[in-house]
Amino acid sequence: QVQLVESGGGLVQAGDSLRLSCVASARTFSPNAVAWFRQAPGKEREFVAGRYWSGGNTLYADSAKGRFTISRDGAQNTVYLQMNSLKPEDTAVYYCAASYGQFGTRSSIYGYWGQGTQVTVSS
After folding, report:
1. What is the pLDDT of the chain when averaged over all its residues?
2. Longest Cα–Cα distance in the chain
């Protein structure tokens, strides 16, 4: 059983940076892909960034391109989301997710989810 635990959220000002972390508590964590999603109040959950666990292609939402970077530390079973130049519209609960099947932007692909971490960006 894989459990994902996010951390690193908080209250920041516009233009600031945050790094989110997601640690997988599994003896062996080797999904096909990992991703970050977010959900703002009153809105649907949306894809932010994703990558193959072993390397290769990465995907970013248009809103994240040039500002966010997804990375991972295989030895630590950890996925990161570096967020720079944050904007008030980035305010949301951020979730990490893992897929042992396909890789893509649809949330239905991902079978494992964390509980989320709140990011609030003030103007």
Report:
1. 96
2. 42
